[in-house]
Hints:
The protein is mainly α. The chain is built from ten helices and no strands. Helix 1 (about 10-25) packs across helix 8 (about 185-215). The radius of gyration is 21 Å and the shape is globular.
Amino acid sequence: MARPGTTVGQVLLDRVEAQAAVLAGLDDAVRADEPDAVHRMRVACRRLRSALRTFRRLLDPGATDALVADLRWLGAALGRARDREVLAERLAAEARELPAACGPERVAAALEQWGEAEYRRVWPEVVAALDSPRRRALATALTTLLADPPLRPRAARAAAPELARIAAHEQRRTADRVHTALAAGPEQRDQALHEARKAAKRARYAGETASPAIGPAAERYAERMKAVQEVLGEHQDAVVAAAALTARAAEDGESFAYGVLYAGQLAAAEAARGRLTKVWAEAGKRKLTRFGSVSGG
C-alpha cells in the first residue's frame, strides 16, 4: 500500500527520474560496446516510453509527444544491433545441439560469423545515434520534464487508487489482445501474438512503476505480466528465427541443417502458443489489480 500522501504524479516522476538516470549512465558503456550495455539502454528507452504513454492522462496533452518519439527512435537504433546479436546467439546455440550428420560445429560457426558481420554492419548506426543532436535533445527534454513537470491536476490524486485503475486498464488491454490472438487464423496469428506481447510488456512496466509505492501487490502483477511477455517473446523469437533461416539457407548452402533448425523453430512457436492460455489464466485474474481501496469514478 502506498505511503499516505503519495500522489500518482510523484510515482510517475520517480519512475522517469530513475530510468533517465539509467539512460544517461550508459552512454559510455554503449560506446565501448560493453557486454549487455546496448540491451540495458534499449530497455531504459522502452520503460521511459511506456511510462509516458501509460500515464499520459496525468500529463498536459502533447507535452511529451516529441520525447516519446525520440525514445522510440533511439530504441529502434539500438535494437537493430541487439536483435541481430540475440538471433545469432540463439541459432548458434541450437545448431550445436544438431545431430552429428548436420555438422553442428560448422553450422554454428557459420551462424556466429553471420551474426557478428551483421552486428558490425549496423554498429555505426548506434554510435551515430548517440552522437546526434537528437540524442542530446532527448537528454535535455528529460531534464526539463523533471525540472518542470507538465502535470495535470489529476496527477495530485492518491497513488494507490489511480495505480490500481491503470493496472486494471492495462490488464484489460492485454486480455483483448491475447483473446484476439488466440482466435486468429494462421495468416494473422503471428502478428496478433506480437501485438499481445507488446501489451503484456506495457502492463508489466506499469506494475514495475507502481511497485515502489504499492509493494508486493504490484510486484505480483508485474511478475504475472512478465510471464505472459516471456511466453509471447519466445513465440516471436521463434518466428523471427524461422524467417532468418529461410533467408540464410541458400546463401550458406546448409539447406539440410537449416531445415532441421527451421522445424525446431516451428515446434518452439507451437509450444509457446500452447502455454499461453495457462499463463494468461494467472495474469488475467482481476484480484491482481487490487492495490488498495479503490473508489469508483
